[in-house]
Amino acid sequence: MDRAVSHTIQRRRLWKRLIFWLAGLSLLGLALFAFRTALRTSVKGAQLRTAVAGRGPIVQTLSATGLVLPEFEEVITAPVTADIEDVLVTEGAEVQAGQPLLILSRQALEAEVGRLRDELALRRNGIRKLRLELDKSFFDLQVRDSIKALNISSLEAALDNARRLKRVGGATQEQVEQAELNLLVARLEKKQLENELNTKQQSIQAEIRESELEAQIQERSLQEQERKLAQAALVARRPGVVTWINKQVGASVREGEQLCKVAGLGAFRLEGSVSELYASRLQAGMAVQVRINDSLLTGAITNIQPAVKNDVMAFDVSLDDPSHPLLRPNLRTEIFIVTGSRPDVVRVANGPAFNGQRRQELFILEDGRARRRTVPVGLSNFDYVELEEGVRPGETVVISDMSDYEHLKEVVVKK
């Protein structure tokens, strides 16, 4: 009769199996590691990118992108509410100063100019009528004043006669007093007439002055409408290229509405954008380098936009040579923002071997072998990396990605 296996024996068997499998897996792992190590102890020289360390200046930069824009872009607006009659140029066309761009309808403007001219003629005719009235009133008052003066002279003579007759008994005291009263009344009437003459003159002159001011206002309105009429054919004020134009012939546009944009080609600026991660390091006045093809242009940040859109911060760049021949509108460029610089360091060309860490495991070529060294890294940019120590000028550095060999102290380089 079979007996049941005890629990102790079962556990022993289980542990033996586990130890067997663990040992097998460990041996397999060691075998794979040894095989990998055997494969990775050498590399073909043609597979490596190398660079010779040297001395020179280095600047540390942040990478950004830029868009070349004209330094100025003139916006041409409608001088008056009108319809677009004709479009003479297309977007992208180069224009010269004074060249017509588009034509607005003139009928409404011409009618308004004619109405203002008629109103101004009426106003000037009214001024002439006022002057004639002034001359007539002034003449009438002068004549009345002259008559009053003659009347006073007559009354003065009558008073003298009454006094003379009174002395000889030919007139009474009442007659003398009546003559004096008549003379006094005549003098007061003359004074009243002179005051009326002066007041009338000032009143008519004030009316003339008011009419003249109204005429001047109307004349300025007429000149403004004539100027708008002359601008019905919109022209470019300076040389440039048409970046946008309203091509809807027959469309009605309001006064002040944009009709065309002309950008100058003589000078350019840059609009840059960089990740918001670098926002704290960005400052106005920082120097920048702009790469266009194989050329580097220099400039400085002039303004930083306060708002962040889509995790990107925008800034403006003023170029030291804004008229460089390589600059073109809407050209995309690389911008390198200078955050630090050193005049004389050991440097080597940048490559995949550098991953941004402060200390790097680099391989140096010596006698057909690439030997590993731990090298502290300083400033870096798109072109160069500073090697603070551990590498001498003239030594050849492997700048390829050597992460597969980082466990080895040296690697044989095959020809």
Question: How would the blueprint of this fold be written?
Answer:
Blueprint: H1 7-39, E1 42-44, E2 50-52, E3 54-70, E4 73-77, E5 82-87, E6 94-95, E7 100-104, H2 107-167, H3 173-230, E8 233-235, E9 240-245, E10 252-253, E11 258-263, E12 268-275, E13 287-292, E14 295-309, E15 312-319, E16 332-349, E17 359-366, E18 369-380, E19 384-387, E20 396-398, E21 410-414
Parallel strand pairs: 1-21
Antiparallel strand pairs: 2-20, 3-12, 3-16, 4-11, 5-7, 5-10, 6-9, 7-8, 9-11, 12-15, 13-14, 13-16, 14-15, 16-19, 17-18, 17-20, 18-19, 18-21
Task: Please explain how this structure is put together.
With 415 residues, this protein is an alpha+beta fold. It folds into three domains: 177 residues, Elongation Factor Tu (Ef-tu), domain 3; 61 residues, OB fold (Dihydrolipoamide Acetyltransferase, E2P), CATH 2.40.50.100; 124 residues, Helix Hairpins (Orthogonal Bundle), CATH 1.10.287.620. Helix content is 37%, strand content 35%. The strands form three sheets. The chain has a six-stranded antiparallel beta barrel. α2 packs antiparallel against α3. The model has no long low-confidence stretch (mean pLDDT 81).
Mean pLDDT: 81
Give helix and strand order, one letter per element, not per position: HEEEEEEEHHEEEEEEEEEEEEEE
Number of strands: 21
Contiguous helical run count: 3
Shape: rod-shaped
- Report strand %: 25-35%
Oligomer: single chain
From the N-terminal CA to the C-terminal CA, the straight-line distance is 76 Å
- Approximate helicity band: 25-40%
Structural class: alpha+beta
CATH H-level superfamily title of the largest domain? Efflux pump adaptor protein, beta barrel domain
What is the highest CATH level, the class of the largest domain?
A: Mainly Beta
Radius of gyration: 51 Å
Domain module count = 3
Main sheet: strands, sense, barrel: 6 strands, antiparallel, barrel
User: What is the CATH architecture annotation of the largest domain?
Assistant: Beta Barrel
Ranges where pLDDT stays below 50 over 5 or more residues in a row are: none
